[in-house]
Amino acid sequence: REAIIVASELTDTTIRNNYARQICLEDIAEYAGVSRVYLSQIFKKETGKNISDYLVEYRLGKAKELLLNSNLKIYTIAELCGFGSAQYFNKIFKKMNGISPYQLKDNKLQ
């Protein structure tokens, strides 16, 4: 049980420290010292989420902070938060939040 918690915590820490980079399950598993299949299973068991969904949610949370608390351009925020492109960022942001990053930023300015 302790090994499961450690691997899950290492995954969380790795994502928080590297979310802005292109990271993948293999990288995280290697860092945690376990197979990617095992890591996926224990992370899902501990958090109720798969690793890729957790990573996207974490990135979106960071992006939302920047949208609300900075004057950075949306494409810059997308890059800083590890999204491959502004187009992908816009699409996933709207899907998960119901509004576009532009709408959130505009609402902040009003």
Based on CA inertia axes, which overall geometry fits? elongated
- Counted by DSSP, the helix tally is 7
**Number of distinct beta strands:** 0
Instruction: State mean pLDDT (0 to 100 scale).
Output: 91
Unreliable residue stretches: none
Q: Report strand %.
A: under 5%
Give the proportion of residues in helices.
over 70%
* Category by helix and strand content: mainly alpha
Instruction: Name the helix and strand elements from N-terminus to C-terminus, one letter apiece.
Output: HHHHHHH
Largest sheet: none
Separation of the first and last Cα atoms: 50 Å
User: Which radius of gyration do the C-alpha atoms yield?
Assistant: 15 Å
What would you say this structure looks like, in words?
The protein is mainly alpha-helical and 110 residues long. Helices cover 76% and strands 0% of the residues. It has helices spanning 2-18, 25-32, 36-47, 51-69, 74-80, 86-97, 101-109. Helix 1 (2-18) packs across helix 3, helix 2 (25-32) packs across helix 3 (36-47) and helix 5 (74-80) crosses helix 6 (86-97). The longest helix has 19 residues, at 51-69. The termini are far apart.
